[in-house]
Amino acid sequence: MTFPEETNTVPAVEMQDIVLRFPGVLANDHVNFTLYPGEIHALLGENGAGKSTLMNVLTGLYKPQSGEIRIHGKKVSFNSPRDAIANGIGMVHQHFMLVENQTVTENILIGLDTPRFALNLKKYDQEISNLAEQFGIHIDPTAKIWQLSVGEQQRVEILKILYRGANILIMDEPTAVLAPQEADELIETLKGMAAQGKSIAFISHKLTEVKHVADKLTVLRRGRATAERVDLQDFTRESLASLMVGREVIFNLHKCEQAAGREVLRLEDVSALNNKNLPALRNVDLALHEGEILGIAGVAGNGQSELVEVITGLRPCTGRIWLEGKDIANKPPSFSINQGLAHIPEDRIGVGSAPNLSLTSNIIMKRYDQQPVSQKWQLDYVAADELAGGLKTEYDIQAPSVQTQARKLSGGNLQKLILARELSSTPRMVVAMQPTRGLDVGAIESVQQMLLNQREQGCAILLVSEDLDELLSLSDRIAVMYEGQIVGVLCSEDFDITQIGLMMTGTLPEELPEKAQAEQASIEGTPSSFDEVLDNLHNYEESSQAKQPAEIELFSESAEPTEVLPQPESSATPEDPPLNLTEKERVLRKVLGENYKQGDDE
Amino acid sequence: MKIPYPVLLKRTEDSPKWLPVVTSVGAVLLAFIISGVILAVTGADPFKVYSYLFKASFGSWGAFSDVVVKATPLLLIGLGCSLAFRMRLWNIGAEGQFFVGAFMASAVVMVPLVNLDTTPRWAIISLMAALGMLGGSLYAFIAGFLKAKLNINEIIITLMLNYIAVLWNNYWIFGKWSESGFQMTKTFPKSAWLPRLADYAKQVPAFSGMTLHLGILFGLIAAVIVYLIVYRSKWGYKITLIGDNPRAARYAGINITANTILVFMVSGALAGLAGMTEVSGVVHRLQERISTSYGFSGVIVAWLAKLNPFAVIVVSILFGALLVASREIQPSGISFLIQGITLFLVISSDVLLKYEIKWVRPAQETAQ
Question: What mean pLDDT comes out for the span B189-206?
């Protein structure tokens, strides 16, 4: 099928009827993908839907069994990534390939034919800084890679491709590794590059982000396109999600009303240093009760990781941490584990599992010392396998057997394994950090439901997440962290995404504008998406820079909600106009109906 | 530009359990074939050389007994290394721990710590074994402590400690304990000797001349114990977990500092015991050349055995055979040549466990 284009330009990329079969899997089933110059085209889909495969066809890594690729109207057949680069196609992978001890310039020049022998770094530094400037990328060409943040390293990868003359860029889940702010910056950069005529394919499984960045959208599900080159404004989050997973995703989880019980955890005046020996936590006081989920909101790197590590005994601190009446501060991790503390770590592979050991070995990680797995000095591997087998069924971990190595599990299944280990021990308290990050929609739902079930059973849960939607839908209270301090704690009846967003930038609750935003929210429906909040934050930041000394004045000004809220920077994104509910519903139904027909035709 | 028959290395996720055995045995056979070619090039008849080598080491019970004598320290050291390597602790200080163990065992006789005439033989030997193990483990403790507490690279420390141990021994054999100026101590009295088969030649005539001593029994018992530790015990689980992912182990509440020191000490104790069996079972005195770099060969043995304690027995006997054979043929370097090629190939054969190798014909590649 073809879509009418407003311009008559030749598409930069035309992939038609791409079929790629792996043994046992149809990775791409007659997929079309068209990308015009100056356009950002998002590829949306769950993990394993075939997005990366399709792009790897474009970069020459895989050869399709059938189908045609045209680059700028010319039919091509790639035998290796080298051919793709020669045609101006470059890909930024999720995991960077950079040499830590070399400078930005050196990394960009690696593998090129020129310079041949003598290296006049200064000249190339200048060249690269010119190139960066052209695309509005901020980077110091003389900096060593290890000195750069993840976001900056990603910019180096992008420059690497640009320097090789690419005009078609493929970004493979570029924001997965970034903090929200960095992600925002990246998106701005990408938009700038598109404005200068570069074509960008943007792989993602994040719904909100795609809405924010892309002009056109193709959705893949199990190797098939469920939407091809459609316009984004016709879609809501819900309709996109259902295209992705093929069923309605319940974003409103079942969460019962219940009163919080007695206190389980109390932090008193807790301070700690980070890995660079700088203060990361400053005088934190916090309490957590039975049957309560306390969400921790905050921009990444404001002390959340350190908070979790201090509670779980992985980082020394000052102050006191009471768990069930016992001081666990500066006690070894085993002490709090025995006190019934479960920990779902942020880094599933690096901390949460032993990748080369079996599922069984990973399951018994915290109970190798308990009956029936433990028999005096011995470890009963038969009993351990039985235990693991039971949990594998109960938690629906997809793996050939309990002897399977943990590294062979997919992200969602690995997280289920960790949850099975942590939650099956009937903990008194769970510390969960980014429990759903990087998972696909189906897995997110089941992980969130598991946490809610724990809450119902009276467990106290500390939930650290950068996904505000997740925090809003799960938490009973939300504490906002900024620069190692708790800026404020909100109860569920006071949840307001704009307020939380402002607090995340360090605004104290008493400095916040009055309930204005809350009222605004109730009129228009909840502002719901993180991106909107970020837009608001930009407005706020810009105006606060302009009027720095008179902050109070600013607030009295912004108390008029219509002035601040719905106006994003006009140049940045054409935001969809606020719809009232009935309109929304109408559009949704229309779009869904169309696309379901399309899906059925194939 | 294009290679006519590109080799494709495809990562395999599941390799059958028998594959490591097949590749290891295959690598050893290939090593013999390659060495055979080299021998043939130099003008020797490889078949003759091999049959001679075989006869020299397995040709008679007497020869085999010599092989086992050589294999004993390799077995003990290999076991110790396999335990440390499992936790990714690169203890290459077995040589030093071996010497300190030998020194401590000798001290029982040379100081003397007990009355050698009245104390029963079993008690003297037990004391020597205990002190040998203690010496090795304390010596390894230095490296373990520095690694665990200060995160100092254990490879450098253990390597350097080797030289210190050798020089420490030299001080005693050149000076204090020197036997009339020779670089060795006096011969130990019989009561400090590990029992040998030859001692029972009166009862069993076939044993006459056989140097096989009780040390091999220590080695076999140690193999069983290490096996039980690694594959059956909670401690072995912890060691494996720390080895695979120390951050996960810490998260699971395992004390990495304590286990690092402990594993180092057990590893050192086994090397120290090897030192004791050499002075008490073979040379019966402390001297300069008690080790033909057993400490380093033990590292190789552990590696070739893929850290499996029972495989360590087999590999150490194979290495013992090569050591014995090297005495019998000229140039003696031939066995070391075979050793080196074997090591090279066995380690290379690992690639077969991780990858499937495919030869892709161009026609096949472009087939649509």
Answer: 88
